[in-house]
Specification:
With about 250 residues, this protein is an alpha/beta fold. It has seven helices and nine strands; from the N terminus they run αβββαββαααβαβββα.
Length: about 250
């Protein structure tokens, strides 16, 4: 029974607290995310969303409490976690191609080795899945914002992860591009668990089962229970959210 519970709960936080230089960022956080569940992470700037992702990846250690990913400490399962940041910091004058960027997602498979033919094959497959295989030889610096987001997601698929973390994937793109990107992400959620950070409160779709609201404390809500009142408490101001079935 315990093994079945571990397999079902991909992400598990139990009484987790974390602080930077004595300032509490997350306090007594407890929640679980189940297998092949698409979950949104929302909250104000500075509320702790990025810290939450770093704890999941094992880049930070909690002051107290436990974080378990696939039933183990995060640092022991990093190869099963994919991560796409909002931006990739790079020198625009450096001649890196799209394929080069995507193959970076394979480095953890052999950090000190030259990319192999299987690395290239996996990178091309990820680009094809994101619908941007035709961009493989283009310079990354020449891409639009929406194209770059797709490339970063393709890079995060390098080792075929079971858990995918996306940090504001639809930020700085137009509405049409954002909608296409969300459709791609929903398709990915059919074979992996996805946590997606977003400031977009028009987030409710049939594919999103729950929302993690982060503002020092963390509350996990079923999608249908997210209301204007819960969002107002989270952001401490009036917010308007649009749902597919009702407007608040």
């Amino acid at each position: 029974m315990m093994n079945q519970e571990v397999e079902k709960s991909i992400v598990r936080f139990e009484a987790v607290s974390f602080s930077y230089h004595g300032q509490t960022v997350l306090e007594n956080v407890t929640f679980t995310v189940d297998k092949q569940q698409m979950t949104y992470v929302v909250g104000p700037n500075g509320g702790g969303k990025t810290t939450l992702l770093k704890l999941i990846m094992g880049l930070l250690q909690p002051d107290s409490g436990t974080v378990r990913i696939f039933g183990k400490p995060p640092e022991k399962v990093r190869t099963r976690i994919g991560y796409a940041p909002q931006h990739l910091r790079f020198d625009p004058k450096f001649p890196v191609t799209v394929l080069d960027v995507v193959m970076m997602g394979r480095l953890q498979s052999g950090f000190f080795n030259r990319p192999s033919s299987s690395d290239k094959k996996a990178a091309l497959a990820a680009l094809d899945e994101l619908g941007v295989a035709d961009l493989a030889r283009k310079a990354f610096s020449d891409l639009s914002g929406g194209q770059r987001q797709r490339i970063l997601i393709a890079r995060s698929l390098g080792d075929n992860p079971d858990l995918l973390l996306l940090d504001e994937p639809t930020a700085n793109v137009d509405a049409h591009t954002g909608d296409k990107l969300l459709k791609t992400i929903r398709d990915l959620s059919e074979r992996m668990t996805i946590l997606m950070v977003s400031h977009d409160l028009g987030f409710v779709t049939d594919n999103v089962r729950s929302v993690i609201c982060v503002n020092r404390r963390v509350h996990l809500h079923p999608t249908e229970n997210v209301t204007s009142d819960s969002i107002r408490k989270l952001y401490d101001q009036e917010m308007r959210i649009i749902r597919h079935d009702i407007t608040h």
